[in-house]
Amino acid sequence: MVSKAVIPAAGIGTGLLPITKEIPKEMLPIILKHKNSYIVKPILQIVFESLYNVGFRNYCIIVGRGKRAIEDYFTPDPRFIGQIKQLKVNFLIDDVLDFYKKISSSMIVYINQPKPRGLGDAILRVKKFVKEEDFIVHAGDTFISNRSTWILKDLVERFLNLNADVLILTTYAKKGKRYRHFVKIEKDCDSNVVKGIFEDENKSNIVLVHIYVFSNRIFDILERMKDKRVIKITDAINELIKQNGRVFAYVLDKDVIDINVPEIYLDVLKSFSLKDY
């Protein structure tokens, strides 16, 4: 069983500067078509609701300096509800109340990552929250459309069926897009065995999406890397592969977007405002 969700949201967001100097990248707005109208939600709320809708109720959000807006946003505010009720915007009130209900029925803890030392460092900090359980890591800047939240459930089921140490979400590289990590896989019956994660685009046309399911074995690797200035989760996964760890890829061809540069953010703003959410 995988019941705990970790959402890293401590990054600096350099690819979207200067707006991310003061506003966390995870709180940037997405305009969604909804019920013959439009609604604006931050990326992080969409991530949270996607996980909630497939059954997760235990969350750890990793925050850093200047991320107070995240904790404030995820704190129900009855006074605010009273104020917007006076404005008689029923559609918006219902959505806010639904969001607050989801928050109230969940356990959300925050862990601080004071310095940008990489995703590996962020994940190592949740060891006490995770304890001995398997867990999902869903980047706070990765957008999955509402119609595709089944992916998260399927990802967890595949992880359990494969008895994996790590299952990573991947997709196919598209022309004109910038990617940082490429995943080399090898077909083995019905599974995609990961042979390595590289920064060389000539190694593969399959790219990494920052959604993972981990067993506790990842902490053994990260503990041995903790003195490094930056702890890359890709390095940890590659080390696990060297140690004959069971690392697999879940390959998608659509519906998952890593919002890390302006042109991708613009594509999301254009496309998702035209589709029912």
The secondary structure category is alpha/beta
Domain count: 1
- Strand percentage lies at 25-35%
Could you name the CATH homologous superfamily? Spore Coat Polysaccharide Biosynthesis Protein SpsA, Chain A
pLDDT under 50 segments (min length 5)?
none
What does this structure look like?
The structure is a single chain. By secondary structure, this protein is α/β, with parallel strands linked by helices. 34% of the residues lie in helices and 29% in strands. It has ten helices and 13 strands. A nine-stranded mixed beta sheet has the order 5-4-1-6-11-8-12-10-9. The two termini are 29 Å apart.
Give a short summary of the structure.
Helices cover 34% and strands 29% of the residues.
Which characteristics define this entry?
single chain, 277 residues, alpha/beta, Spore Coat Polysaccharide Biosynthesis Protein SpsA, Chain A, nine-stranded mixed sheet, 13 strands, globular
Topology:
Blueprint: E1 2-8, E2 29-34, E3 37-42, H1 43-53, E4 58-63, H2 68-73, H3 78-86, H4 90-104, E5 107-112, H5 119-124, H6 127-130, E6 134-138, E7 142-144, H7 150-162, E8 166-172, E9 182-188, E10 191-198, E11 206-214, H8 217-224, H9 233-242, E12 247-252, E13 256-258, H10 262-272
Parallel strand pairs: 1-4, 1-6, 4-5, 8-12
Antiparallel strand pairs: 2-3, 6-11, 7-13, 8-11, 9-10, 10-12
